[in-house]
Design goal:
Elements lengths: L14 H15 L5 H12 L5 H17 L1 H15 L6 H14 L3 H10 L5 H14 L7 H7 L5 H15 L3 H4 L3
Helix pairs in contact: 1-3, 2-3, 2-4, 3-4, 3-5, 4-5, 5-7, 6-7, 7-9, 8-9
Length: 180
């Protein structure tokens, strides 16, 4: 805990950051999932004074804990959504949070956030959101209007992934695939 709560490091290759990354990775692998591990991963994921690569790893560990322990899932989702909404968060942190949310499943708040993220100014966020929604398949049908809008995205990868997501969500349902 002490290693993780030290605070600021000076970059990805700083020995402190390496130690923090190793520690937070181990937290995500703990079995059984403990309240202490969840609290630590949550604190580090939210802590803006800790280097973004360490926060990134903490968020992934929190998602892993939430995926393994149903009672932790909602707390993990709320924390990850909070980090994703940080306006000043690092792009790679926000992108990885989208993928971490994918590990936790198509909770309505996640689907809604990802549908909105299809309009993000950052290309990698839009790509990650489309990919994660495609992964959710039929469970993310509420995102169909946003996915249809994403078919007009300037990026061919976003368009293709949005198309794949729409096809997966509407397979065998002609009323949905025709926009009715």
């Amino acid at each position: 805990q002490l290693v993780l709560r030290e605070g600021s490091t000076h970059g990805r290759h700083d020995p402190g950051a390496r130690s923090q990354r190793l520690a937070v990775d181990l937290v995500g692998r703990l079995t059984p999932v403990t309240d202490e591990a969840v609290g630590l991963a949550t604190d580090v994921c939210r802590n803006r004074s800790i280097h973004d690569v360490v926060r990134h790893d903490a968020c992934l560990s929190l998602a892993a804990l939430g995926a393994r322990e149903p009672s932790v899932r909602q707390q993990a989702i709320e924390t990850l959504l909070q980090v994703f909404q940080e306006s000043d968060a690092d792009l790679s942190l926000r992108t990885e949070v989208v993928y971490a949310l994918g590990r936790l499943g198509p909770e309505p708040s996640v689907v809604e956030t990802l549908a909105h993220a299809l309009q993000d100014r950052e290309l990698f966020i839009r790509r990650a959101a489309a990919s994660t929604l495609a992964q959710f398949g039929v469970s993310a049908r509420s995102a169909l209007p946003a996915l249809r809008t994403a078919l007009n995205d300037a990026d061919p990868e976003v368009k293709a992934t949005a198309q794949r997501a729409i096809e997966q969500m509407t397979m065998g349902d002609s009323s949905v695939s025709e926009g009715r």
